[in-house]
Specification:
By secondary structure, the chain is of the alpha+beta class. It contains four helices and eight strands; from the N terminus they run αβββαββααβββ.
């Protein structure tokens, strides 16, 4: 396996720029029993490795994150923009979830950031008592630019990266 290197700064910068064009995340959660749920949520970036979301109790992903605070977050190139459907650009994070009470500093931080990013809708949604602030704290990430261009980040700050090329594709 190839050693972790620090000289792929351009790839890390590209991954950040790719992520920064999105306003929502694709979210994968699971019940305690392991039943998966795919969903999405608008988000705010709190730190390099932390996302804030404001989600309703009516959504399955909210219950999943309370019961099983693990999630995967995906940013993926649209089908319309991709040059190759089999090699869409994507950035995925593995995260731990934390639910925050309405009187916490983090709750207020996320709500203020969401108001700034999403404007008027948040004035209404903020009052909804079935909505909760959850932070998703990433532990690591992977970035795929295309065929044979996959990278693993050793930490969620996207500053320790290695090219995943220790295993090739096999042809019959």
């Amino acid at each position: 396996m190839e050693a972790v290197v620090d000289d792929l700064a351009d790839i890390a910068s590209e991954a950040r720029e790719f992520r920064d064009q999105f306003k929502s995340i694709q979210l994968s959660t699971a019940t305690l029993g392991g039943t998966p749920t795919a969903s999405y949520a608008p988000f705010v970036q709190l730190q390099e490795n932390q996302f804030g979301i404001y989600i309703s109790e009516l959504a399955a992903h909210t219950h999943n994150l309370v019961d099983n605070p693990k999630a995967s977050v995906l940013f993926i190139e649209s089908e319309e923009k991709t040059k190759q459907l089999f090699a869409r650009q994507r950035l995925a994070y593995t995260c731990d979830a934390t639910l925050h009470s309405r009187d916490s500093d983090t709750f207020l931080l996320v709500i203020d950031a969401m108001k700034a990013r999403f404007k008027g809708i948040m004035e209404h949604l903020e009052k909804m008592q079935d909505f909760h602030v959850v932070t998703l704290n990433a532990s690591h990430a992977s970035y795929v630019r295309g065929f044979a261009q996959a990278y693993q980040f050793e930490n969620a700050d996207l500053n320790k990266i290695r090219h995943i090329n220790d295993k090739g594709h096999n042809e019959k």
